[in-house]
Amino acid sequence: MKVQEQDRGKLKMKRGGESVEEEDSGETEVVDPLANAQEVPQGSNLALSNQPLVSKTEPSLLKIMEQMIQFMGKLTQEVTPRDNSKAPAFKTPSMKEPNSFDGTKAHKLIGFIQSCKLIFHNDPENFFSDRKKVLYSTSFLTGSAGKWIEPYLSNISNEDPSYLLNNWQLFETQSFTLFGDPNEVRKAEQELDNLRMNESGHVCLYIADFRNLILRIGDWGERAYIHAYRRGLASRLLDQLASHPGAFDTLQELMDVTLELDTRCHERQKEKGGNQEKKPPATESNQSRPLQNSSSKRPHQKKNKKGKQFQSSKDKPLAALLNKDNKLILSEKERSIKEGLCTYSGGKHPIEKCFKRPQNKPGLSKGFPRKQGKA
């Protein structure tokens, strides 16, 4: 709509092609151009948009109107709720299902319950009620444990909050009462009292065993757990903790410090091992200098634990190989024959050239009587 005002208080309007002048009554008359538009016959090719709705429309006003239309369109899109029905449902990471529990091995019950709780905590949207938790857990019960839960499942429609299928705390308590070890706490306390860290081991393994035992024991209190933890540490870590300023308020704080100290200790051990491997080996000249004597030319001989040298049958003195008649013993004689050695002395020469043989000594005849040995 466009309002045109004339200087003399008259409003000049175009109606059906005629010019009309009216006296100004003190009020501004608003003219609707659609009311004065000529009627377009039905079926005519003349478009209504070809007729200007407002004459002499200012360009700035049109621009503002276009911006307002665009803004309203964006605002409508933001306000309109989106259709999320086709969006993929959020899924938690796949986790291993609990192992089945048949009720025969009491020490496996705590692992079964902990596995179920881990799944419940990881997927709270699906396990939002005790009933869903209990029904999921009962699907893994077999053997005597499965027979125990069967009567409750026969009345699965019971919605009483105190009913076992609708109360997770009751289900957990009954499971430990029927299938748990009645001496579980006492056994865990004994194991914790005897738990010791290996001197050369890693403290992370000690922490894992310690955590498992205190879970089975229950709440002893922070001070008692700190005392038990320190008692089982390796002496090398206790020595380093002695220089640590201040006391530890929580068990986790003490574990963190020992982990850091143990990591540094093992890193240092690796550095020492690497430095030893990089040392140059001793040269042959250095090894042979103190042995530059007549004994250095002797062949290498093995030594026993007491430092005495071993001698093979080849290195034995001749007296040990001779009998009372000054002849080789039978075993040595057979060996000498096989190896082509002297059958008299065992040397690497024929018997005819053996200087130890009396017949071969110069100045002695073959008929020289032999010295008789003692009977």
UniProtKB/TrEMBL annotation:
<feature type="compositionally biased region" description="Basic and acidic residues">
    <location>
        <begin position="1"/>
        <end position="18"/>
    </location>
</feature>
<feature type="compositionally biased region" description="Basic and acidic residues">
    <location>
        <begin position="324"/>
        <end position="338"/>
    </location>
</feature>
<feature type="region of interest" description="Disordered">
    <location>
        <begin position="267"/>
        <end position="375"/>
    </location>
</feature>
<feature type="domain" description="Ty3 transposon capsid-like protein">
    <location>
        <begin position="95"/>
        <end position="286"/>
    </location>
</feature>
<feature type="compositionally biased region" description="Polar residues">
    <location>
        <begin position="283"/>
        <end position="296"/>
    </location>
</feature>
<feature type="region of interest" description="Disordered">
    <location>
        <begin position="80"/>
        <end position="100"/>
    </location>
</feature>
<feature type="region of interest" description="Disordered">
    <location>
        <begin position="1"/>
        <end position="29"/>
    </location>
</feature>
<dbReference type="InterPro" id="IPR032567">
    <property type="entry name" value="RTL1-rel"/>
</dbReference>
<feature type="compositionally biased region" description="Basic and acidic residues">
    <location>
        <begin position="267"/>
        <end position="281"/>
    </location>
</feature>
<dbReference type="Pfam" id="PF19259">
    <property type="entry name" value="Ty3_capsid"/>
</dbReference>
<feature type="compositionally biased region" description="Acidic residues">
    <location>
        <begin position="19"/>
        <end position="29"/>
    </location>
</feature>
<protein>
    <recommendedName>
        <fullName>Ty3 transposon capsid-like protein domain-containing protein</fullName>
    </recommendedName>
</protein>
<feature type="compositionally biased region" description="Basic residues">
    <location>
        <begin position="297"/>
        <end position="308"/>
    </location>
</feature>
<dbReference type="InterPro" id="IPR045358">
    <property type="entry name" value="Ty3_capsid"/>
</dbReference>
